[in-house]
Design brief:
By secondary structure, the chain is an alpha+beta fold. Helix content is 32%, strand content 19%. The chain has an eight-stranded mixed sheet, sandwiched between helices. A two-stranded antiparallel ribbon has the order 1-2. β6, α5 and β7 form a beta-alpha-beta unit. α4 packs across α5. The protein starts with 9 loop residues before the first helix and ends in a 7-residue tail after the last helix. The model has no long low-confidence stretch (mean pLDDT 81). InterPro entries: Piwi, RNaseH-like_sf, RNaseH_sf. This is Argonaute 1.
């Protein structure tokens, strides 16, 4: 481990780290001739804030299995690797051939409460591979506290072109959209406008046949919880077993909505996800993370 002093200038620190990595690489290159060692990856750990100890340095030194396992999964994903994917046997068939399908997540983050001149950031992510494991993103800045995505037309075109590049010239024929962060009062307006933008993108792309679209609103801002009536139907925390769908009794009398526990709860009582109108929440969550990260790159006055 080589520790470099941070003087508040992250850019210069990274330049220095690159030079140091090159020096170490040269040493390994010389050693490779005798013992076949080489540098495949340089890991740079940045401190949380100025004049603080390196972030969880002791965890890296102690080599705790769970910590390093999670770290490796993140590094693998950032380098283009695949950690999880949908089994081909679980993907629906259509007349003997699989339908090219893109899974899209949409979210918009807004300024903090009390900020009057803030901006909103819209993020759209979409799968580009057959296993729904690799996602690409498109981000836009728009007027503060505006929930409808202004540039969804262009953002969808971005994702469709990336999909086509990975799929040997084939556009998606089925689109599954998970829309996060829409309140019931805004639901109809948001769906109407964003679905219209989707269809307009299909026309712009001059697709021979417009894809079928399933548009779902994802909501976890509620106080509804479910508990099993029989202990055998629950998990270790007393929650309803994963993949349990509740679509009768407490849902809307005539609209298509349902509650779903999509995965086991790690601790305590799980909050089921409420899906409306048309299934896991991953693409919407991915879009939320992209929008939050994009905000960190935007200047306060720009």
């Amino acid at each position: 481990m080589t520790v470099l002093e941070v003087r508040g200038d992250i850019r210069q620190t990274l330049v220095t780290a690159k030079k140091k990595a090159a020096e170490i690489g040269q040493k390994f290159a010389g050693a490779k001739r005798t013992n076949s060692r080489s540098v495949d990856l340089v890991l740079c750990v940045l401190p949380q804030a100025r004049n603080t100890a390196l972030y969880n340095e002791e965890l890296v030194v102690d080599q705790k299995g769970g910590y390093l396992g999670n770290l490796i999964l993140k590094i693998n994903a950032k380098l283009g690797g695949v950690n999880t994917y949908v089994l081909p046997s679980d993907i629906p068939l259509n007349t003997g051939s699989r339908i090219p399908t893109i899974v899209i997540g949409i979210d918009v983050t807004h300024p903090l409460a009390g900020v009057t001149n803030g901006i909103s950031i819209a993020a759209v992510v979409g799968s580009v591979d057959s296993g729904y494991a690799e996602y690409r993103c498109s981000v836009r800045v728009q007027a503060g506290r505006q929930e409808i995505v202004d540039d969804l037309h262009d953002m969808v075109i971005d994702l469709f072109e990336m999909f086509r590049e990975r799929s040997k010239g084939v556009y998606p024929q089925r689109v599954i959209v998970y829309r996060d962060g829409v309140s019931e009062g805004q639901f109809s307006e948001v769906i109407f406008n964003e679905l219209k933008s989707l269809k307009r993108a299909f026309v712009t792309l001059k697709m021979n046949k417009a894809p079928t679209v399933t548009f779902l609103s994802v909501n976890k801002r509620h106080h509804i919880r479910f508990f099993p009536t029989n202990q055998k139907d629950g998990d270790k925390n007393g929650n309803v077993m994963p993949s349990t769908v509740i679509d009768t009794g407490i849902v809307h009398p005539y609209e298509f909505d349902f509650f779903l526990n999509s995965h086991p709860g790690l601790q305590g009582t799980s909050r089921p996800t409420h899906f409306t109108k048309a299934v896991s929440i991953v693409p919407a969550y991915h879009a939320h993370l992209v929008a939050a990260r994009a905000r960190a790159h935007v200047e306060k006055d720009d």
